[in-house]
Amino acid sequence: MAKSTMKAIVSSKGNGGAGKPRKKSNYGIERQPRSEAIEAASSYKTEFPQFAALCGKSRRSHMVVPKAIARKVGITGKGKTVLLDPKGRSWRVSFSPRMDGRVDIISGWAGRR
């Protein structure tokens, strides 16, 4: 089973979130202004392959894993894996590769967004 790690950072839309109070999402993840979210994701270091994606409306039900990450963790067909967040929490997800090499996480993502 391939292991991957992901940092969940949720951003508010708009002018970088300037002047907006931080809110908690329905999933207990603190919302950050977009610029802070990008900075936090960029500074996160781990030994595992990682990528950052802004979680907006289009990311509610699935996540697309970049081709380079899919190759590094050995995703070549449909299957399941375990994702880890920076706090060490894990959860199972199902994935399905696309023809272009990217991978869709098709179940297990919606409850963790």
TrEMBL record:
GO cellular component, as recorded: nucleus
Top-level lineage group: Eukaryota
Compartments in which it is found: Nucleus
Region (Disordered): 1-32
GO MF entry, a single one: DNA binding
Keyword Signal part of the UniProt annotation: no
UniProt domain TF-B3: residue ranges: 48-113
Name of protein: TF-B3 domain-containing protein
Organism: Nelumbo nucifera (Sacred lotus)
